[in-house]
Write a structure and sequence with these properties.
- The structure is a homodimer.
- With about 500 residues, chain A is mainly alpha-helical.
- Chain A has 3 domains: about 120 residues, Alpha Horseshoe (MgtE N-terminal fold), CATH 1.25.60.10; about 110 residues, CBS-domain, CATH 3.10.580; about 220 residues, SLC41 divalent cation transporters, integral membrane domain (Tetracycline Repressor, domain 2, Orthogonal Bundle).
- Chain A contains 27 helices and 8 strands.
- Chain A is elongated and about 90 Å long.
């Protein structure tokens, strides 16, 4: 036993590739099946966590999968089924006999069955629903009916509900009898005579209480709950904030009709932060694990946003195009060299703030109506950031020019050369001459642009997500691409306005 | 009671600003204290979750805070203290009498005390440690000794450990006696004679088991565990993967010395995804909530990365500067107009992939050694993305030119005009003439550049995080700024190489 434990220890600790992370590999599993080693197979199910076996089994042939179900004890395969991926589940539904299916499906939680059925082709879904017993079918249909990403869709209907007049002893007996069907027995739910939800009892409080105490005496009254239409992001937030083990879900009539347990809440939190992270990088969130995405599924997460950005980029292109018309580039080509750096700085400074906003709004660290306070916070931070970064930029741009990393280049075409003539180490044209005398003026131009761009960018980076949230839109959805465009244009305009100020002869 | 419940319901459900989210406001709390309404205060502690009261109390004067501790029952203030922010805790440690402090501190968990003490000024920390009883002090010192962000630093030393020969009845008695001191009684830990950790027992299994059964018969043997040095990111991952309620932490001698409970794991997961998200937007992660950061603390998260990007931007500036030397801009100024859009596309396409990589590596969806498989996946997705986006770009750039959104601008300075002369609707210079005849050639140039930039960018976006992970660095740390720089330079070079191909007369 100890040896097996050592074996498993490798799972969590290895930082290596996927293969090493698995306590059992696909090959090992396949070998046990090929050799019809039922004892070995059963031993694996006793000692290796289901999720690890399921990962090894996901790619097995249906005949091998069904072999597992026919030879391992049902108590072990029930939770194993739940951990398999959608494809494997569907393959099993296709190949199992009606009797086998009835057994496997009714051993699942209604919420897990609903999740799986919701993504199955219609013929398989109806096979599963036919296999489900009456209660399960009712529950699954109820759950399927709620909108995706709401508490209703992620809750389970299997929980223990007691009258507040029930005694501790009665509650313990009920747990012994019906506890196995419930999703959790660590939190018990309590209603009053009028069937209103009034509190929860933690299992450990039952153990500490006297046997004849009514639940009303030991229950927690300071409980939080949500309704079926509560957004799942909010559900995750409640678990985080209140350190819950389970959360009550009420319907519109304020009756308790479901609960959400911490393991499902953890999945939701992960899903929500995956989603925010995808949005931050201008992607559509994926609805399955990355390694299971096809090339097309993977590609279609990206290109819509690349196209949106391309279209939004038209504004930048137009502005740059109009500036060209004013021949600023031609009188001072070095200006162009700093356009990408300035744009990157503006975009990044705003992106930092947008990131904070998106995350803070998602975690409810603040609400959209706090925008003025946050603006003020970001304004102060932006000014400090701008001063430091711009001072550094002044120094750095001076160094770049002095060391020759960046050179003031004058076209050598004869016609053009008449306008600006390179003459040893100095320029003779008025514009270029002014410039040569003012390496520092140019560094100051870049620095000033940077300062203004950083401050403006932080302000816009604050406003866009707050605006989205105030309009009840996902702040992560539009903020990032909008910011890029707005800041590209803004930075260009600031830069060239500054250039005209610093080099008046050019304007 | 029902009414109070309705009151609280507002907490989770309102999407509004912070003020409304609170079940009790600072003003309400202050009023209770000012009116010395002890009964009202006690009622609040019975019906409002501690975290909500703590948030209202965080900004109270120390004298008001201490009033709460002196008038509310100790059983309620213990957990309330834990939810206060660091400033409020420190204020209390300063103002409490020795006796009060002893009571409050010893009612805390050792891990929470360690977290607080670790950030206190030395004089306050030593006051707390003096107030702690011997066991608590030992535990706190032990926990303080582990490196930040490891399992050792987040674990708690208060858990129930039984011999595998103990009976169910003995275990239940032990829970009744010592359970309140443990962080959780939902998971019990089991060792064998040689003090090796051999399994866990869930509390509900105790209820279902026979009273005289030894724990060895009912315990789970397929358990996972970590060591004190395991990174907290990995801890979060184990909770997610194995749906744990509590996780065993072993020391180097393989003995169980602590446990991590799900509520602490949830905090860790949130912290880790905050960190990844900060990195994705080129920021240093913050170690406290956003609203508590000072302007300077807020600013110093951003500017180091803005400066790094500025320095890295030198490469882009240099490349653009060298290209100017070849006068490509002057012969065909319209080229410049598309530089920002192309750079944004390249940066975004790579950023999407980097985001996937960082998240996938963090959640262990794959490991760094899977890089070849992922490269292949991203190459396929990149080609699809590139084809679609580039086709669209071809169309869009043609439209931009035909509608006059973007114009081919010819300088009007007389000297320059001799080189390229605008002549009604056609160009007379060879370069410009060729261009006017080939609006589509130019659209094709932008489209081809975009295709190559997207594919290259997705490849680099895959490699950088894998490389960082393979070198045991945080993939989120350097990938994003590096990618920006590499792709800015790469996009420029691709664009101008393509330009020379498409407009050979220019080269």
């Amino acid at each position: 036993m100890d040896d097996e434990n050592k074996e498993e220890k490798k799972i969590p600790e290895t930082e290596g590739p996927e293969e090493e992370q698995k306590a059992i590999s696909k090959e090992e599993l396949k070998e046990l099946i090929d050799h019809k080693d039922v004892a070995g197979l059963r031993a694996v199910f006793e000692t290796v966590p289901d999720i690890d076996i399921a990962e090894a089994a996901d790619d097995l042939e249906p005949t091998d999968l069904i072999y597992i179900f026919r030879n391992v004890e049902a108590k072990n395969t029930a939770s194993f089924y739940d951990e398999l991926n959608q494809d494997a589940k569907e393959a099993l539904v296709r190949t199992m006999t009606d009797k086998e299916l009835v057994q496997v499906i009714n051993a699942q939680s209604a919420d897990d069955v609903a999740d799986t059925v919701g993504e199955m082709p219609a013929n398989l879904a109806s096979r599963v629903l036919k296999a489900a017993d009456k209660d399960m079918r009712k529950d699954v249909n109820l759950l399927l009916h709620y909108k995706e990403d709401t508490a209703g869709a992620i809750m389970t209907t299997e929980f223990l509900l007691f009258l507040d007049t029930a005694t501790v002893d009665e509650a313990i007996s009920a747990i012994r009898e019906r506890g196995k069907e419930a999703e959790t027995v660590y939190t018990l739910f309590v209603k009053n005579k009028s069937r209103d939800f009034v509190g929860t009892v933690d299992l450990d409080d039952l153990i500490w209480a006297k046997k004849d105490q009514p639940l009303s005496e030991i229950m927690n009254r300071d409980v939080v709950y949500c309704t079926t239409s509560t957004d799942q992001e909010e559900v995750g937030q409640m678990f985080r904030r209140y350190d819950l083990n389970a959360l009550a879900v009420l319907n519109e009539d304020q009756k308790l009709i479901g609960i959400i347990t911490i393991d499902d809440a953890v999945d939701v939190m992960t899903e929500e932060s995956n989603e925010d992270m995808a949005r931050l990088t201008n992607m559509e969130p994926a609805d399955k694990p990355y390694m299971e995405l096809s090339a097309w599924e993977n590609a279609k997460r990206s290109f819509p946003w690349l196209i949106v950005l391309l279209v939004l980029g038209t504004f930048t292109t137009m502005v740059l195009n109009r500036l060209e018309a004013q021949q600023i580039f031609i009188s001072l080509p070095i200006l162009i060299s700093f356009v990408p750096t300035l744009m990157d700085t503006g975009g990044n400074a705003g992106g930092q703030t947008t990131g904070i906003m998106i995350r803070g709004l998602a975690l409810k660290e603040f609400g959209p109506r706090d925008w003025a306070r946050i603006m003020w916070k970001e304004l102060k931070a932006g000014v400090i950031n701008g001063l430091i970064t711009a001072s550094f930029a002044f120094l750095w741009v001076s160094i770049e020019q002095y060391t020759g990393l960046v050179k003031v280049i004058v076209p050598d075409q004869p016609a053009y050369a008449r306008l600006i003539v390179w003459n040893g180490s100095a320029f003779t044209s008025p514009v270029a001459g002014a410039f040569a005398a003012h390496v520092f003026t140019f560094a100051a131009l870049v620095a000033c642009t940077m300062f203004i761009a950083i401050v403006v960018s932080k302000m816009i980076g604050t406003l866009l997500p707050c605006l989205a949230a105030a309009l009840k839109k996902d702040p992560a959805l539009l903020s990032q691409p909008m910011l890029t465009t707005v800041m590209d244009v803004a930075t260009l305009l600031i830069y060239f306005a500054m250039a005209c100020l610093f080099f008046p002869s050019m304007a």
